[in-house]
Amino acid sequence: MTQPPPYGQAPQDTQPPPASRPRTTLAVAMEQSRYRLMVTAAVVTAVFSAISVKLVAATVFVPAGEPRQHHALEVDGTTTNRADILDRNGNLLATSLVTQSLYADPKLVSRPEEAARKLVSALPELDYKDVYAKLSGDKRFVWLKRNLSPKQQYAVHRLGIPGVSFEREERRFFPAGNLTSHVVGFTGVDNNGLSGLEQSFNKRLTEDPATPLQLSIDLRLQHVLKKELAATVQEFSAIGAAGIIFDVRSGEVMAMTSLPDFDPQDPTGLDPDTLFNRATLGVYEMGSTFKIFNSALAFESGKIKVSDYFDAIHPIKIGRFTINEYHGLGRALTVAEVFQHSSNLGSVRMVQQVGIPAQKAFMAKMGFTRPTALELPENGWPLVPNPWREVNSMTISFGHGISVSPMHTVTAAASVINGGVMHQPTLIKRAPGAEVPGEQVVSRQTSEMMRRMFRFVVTEGTGKSAGVKGYVVGGKTGTADKQKGRHYQKNSRMSSFLGAFPMNDPRYIVYVLVDEPKATAKTYGYATGGWVAAPAVGRIIKQVGPLLNVPIQDEASPEILNATFLNAAGSTNWVAPPHPPATATTAKGSTVASFPPPAKQQR
Amino acid sequence: MKGKTWLFWGGLIAAAGGVLFQTSYDVQDLEDKLAGLNRKIVTEQESIQVLKAEWSYLNDPTKLEELATAHLALQPIEARQFLALDTIPMRPAPAPDAVPAPVPGRGLTPVPPPMAGLAAPQLASARVPSARVPMEAALEKAPVITPASLPVPAPVRAAPIKPSALVPASARAPALPPSPPAPAAATPGKLAPNAPLPSLNRPTDVASRPMPAPIKLTPVKGQAYTPKPTDSLGLLVARLGANQ
User: Main subcellular localization, coarse class (chain A) (predicted)?
Assistant: First the structure.
């Protein structure tokens, strides 16, 4: 026995300790397999515990299960992919209806001639040769007919032709038809808006199909407007007309029509004039209607009072032009009379006193230099002279040399009479009580005086035939010669009337523009705004007044006269007549102090 | 013991399996039902859409106006047919214990009651202010609507303001016969009987017109109306027919 080696040193050349027996191969194998078993058990345990953990988590903690095959539909939802368009009272103007369309896979059609013959027998409007050519072609997909009615679908289905099947599609349907054709517009065969609001709101209509788009248009007013315009067009053999009813307080367009109109259901193959929207896209020289803005400009400048006199006798020569009166009176006129008789010379002298830069700035403020904010894609750019020379300034004072759309004119005129606030026009209904964005463009005093001028034209001026008892109508006529090429034509003109009511507190503007009216015997050979458009406006106001809930007022009552009186000399002071006629009891009341004091004299 | 344990667990597994299968089939049934309901909802929504479209189509003002002029005796509303609420006079306060005070119509000088000698005048004069004020004031506010050219109707007791005085001249009632003064003799404490207004029995404009010929309702079936495929109404009618 030798000493064991010191601690830490490997034994060298020593016998193994007697306690340990020599390791046999069997023992080694046993140990090895025990280790393997342990490892396997550990792995299996780990995997199974992972599975159990996942199992518990998946079954107990997460309510997973299979994905649901069906989900309950909302009852108020919609099945279509394009939102409806409603008028302000909720009447449908455009909606989508589900239809079936017929298509074929020519590869699967075994006997094209027989299939084509059967199809043509079921759908007689199809052409045999066309169908045969389609069915025997090489494509994998051809449309045979879009938007079948259910009966047609049934008939085709019964034939049982292999390779011919149906596809669910939508079709845009316009219940109001021609009435709103230029406002709502129309869609193509794939339901994309191609004109009108269908085009400008295409994204909105497809992205939110459940919420209908509500317009400011009132279908009843639209009907009245179109009916009277059509009657006027027929009476004066005009080539077209445009009309607008406009809420001066909110800027909402209550009705808008352009004649000739079209059926939005089938807008193909129409001439461009029919599709042309005269109310927004057409820009025209407005003629005397622009004297509204010339007078407002004169008052705004502070240099001109309503009682100032202007020379209306001597024609003005500038360059190769001579400016003359349409029907001259041969004397000097006050501003009120210039407006009343629609005097060109007086208007030119007024703008000469105001100056060109002021006029230019004012016309820009009135919005005549850019398109209106209306939501239609058909929104015309005005034709503005550049440079704005003296001769342009003169002609613009009576409405020639600048071309704007009727919508421009109505929007600007609304701002002139509603207290001076310019509201951009809109075709979308404003929420009741919502604040209306606006911009003060003329002063309240100017606006108040312009109301009197409007009323004066209807009581004693060129627009008498627009008067409607009870509605205190005011307005301004307009007649412009049409330009063909470089020359004005004598016998083709645009006659218009811009009427507003009630003038003591204006609510609505009714505008009518007639394109190329021909004089008739009834109008004594005249085809001017006062003879053509003013009666139409009167008839329209008579019918829409009750619909718009405008209260009837007594036009001879002192309240109304105090608010709207103006005489030729430019005085706004209304004095009760000394011998009041039938309405004696009310006229006596005018001395009572509770009436509002007569309006202040204009500057 | 071992066999019982097996039996227990085996039974539990079988029961669980059975319940699971039952639930699975129930769910399948419900899913099918839901799918059916969804299909029905879609069909209904499409039908509603079609009906809405047709309603709007039939309510087109242009068509309505044509129909109205063809079948009705009505005219468009005019301004003169409107009255502000405050211009309509209140009914005079009833006098339960007295002869109603004679309130003359507008433009009349107050007519003394025919039986001036009785106690009625005192009662009447005492009542006049309260009865007069709202009516006269109201009438003064409505000068236009009451045309001054109306023939002055003879005063009728207990009917101080005749409806015919408020309607415009074109609907003028026939002149009333002068009412006999006899009703005034009624004893105080009783209301004078109302004189019958002849205008009430007058046939109205509409009633006097011959009845419009009844519209012949043609059944929308078969040959009665064959919708053209391009016709929008045809599309609607066809759809409606198919939805039945």
Answer: membrane
Nearest residue to A504 via CA among A549, A560, A566: A560
Whole-angstrom CA distances from A314 to A352, A400, A584 are 15, 20, 46
A266 to chain B: nearest residue by CA? B230
**Nearest-CA neighbor of B83 among B8, B19, B168?**
B168
- The structure tokens 């407006």 sit at A339
Q: Of A288, A342, A397, A403, which is the active-site residue?
A: A288
* Minimal-distance CA residue of chain A relative to B30: A70
Residues from chain A that touch B62, judged by Cβ atoms under 8 A, are 179, 223, 226-227
Return the exposure string of B194-224: e unless at least 16 CB atoms fall within 10 Å of the residue's CB, then b.
ebeeeeeeeeeeeeeeeeeeeeeeeeeeeee
Q: Where are the beta strands (DSSP E) in A105-239?
A: 142-148, 164-173, 213-214
ipTM of the complex as predicted: 0.72
Strands A85-86 and A213-214: parallel
d(C-alpha B107, C-alpha A585), whole Å? 10
CA atoms within a 13 Å half-sphere pointing along the CA-CB vector of A385 = 19
Active site residue A288: yes
> Which has the closest alpha carbon to A181: A74, A89, A256?
A256
Subunit contact B62:A179, Cβ cutoff 8 A = yes
User: Per-residue confidence of chain B (244 residues) as pLDDT tens digits?
Assistant: 788 999 999 999 999 999 999 999 999 999 999 999 988 988 888 888 888 888 888 888 888 889 999 999 888 777 777 777 777 788 887 766 655 454 444 444 444 444 434 433 344 333 444 444 444 454 444 444 434 444 444 444 444 444 444 444 444 444 444 444 444 343 444 444 454 444 444 445 554 555 555 555 444 444 555 545 455 555 554 555 444 3
Q: Which sequence spans correspond to the domains of chain A?
A: 85-215, 226-588
Q: Which residues contact B17 (CB under 8 A, 6 or more apart)?
A: none
| Mean per-residue pLDDT pooled into runs of 10, chain A (603 residues) | 55 59 84 95 97 88 68 73 90 88 89 89 88 88 86 88 88 89 89 90 90 92 93 91 93 92 83 87 90 92 87 82 76 88 88 90 91 90 88 88 92 92 92 86 91 90 86 90 76 89 91 90 80 92 88 82 80 69 41 40 39
- What's the pLDDT at B173? 43
* Cross-chain residue pair B49–A469, CB shorter than 8 Å: no
The answer to whether the Cβ–Cβ distance between A543 and B235 falls below 8 Å is no
Calculate how close chain A gets to B9, using CA atoms only, in Å. 20
Q: Give chain B's contact residues with A (Cβ, < 8 Å).
A: 31, 34-35, 37-38, 41-42, 45-46, 49-50, 52-57, 59-62, 65, 76-80, 82, 84, 140-141, 143-144, 148-149, 227, 229-230, 232, 234-235, 238-239, 241-242
B234 contacts in A (CB within 8 Å)? 149
CA distance A38 to B130: 115
Give the tokens for residue A350.
């007024």
CB distance A296 to A350 below 8 Å: no
Q: State the Cα–Cα distance between residues B66 and B61, nearest whole angstrom.
A: 9
CATH fit for domain A85-215, picks 3.90.1310.10, 3.40.190.170, 3.40.50.300, 2.60.40.1180: 3.90.1310.10
Residue A214, classed as helix, strand or coil, is strand
The counts of H helices and E strands in chain B are 7, 0
- Residue A275 CB contacts under 8 Å (≥ 6 apart), including other chains: A195, A262, A267
Smallest Cα distance from A227 to chain B, Å: 8
Read off the tokens for A302: 């502070």
For testing contact with chain B, the best of A66, A73, A228 (most B CBs within 10 A): A73
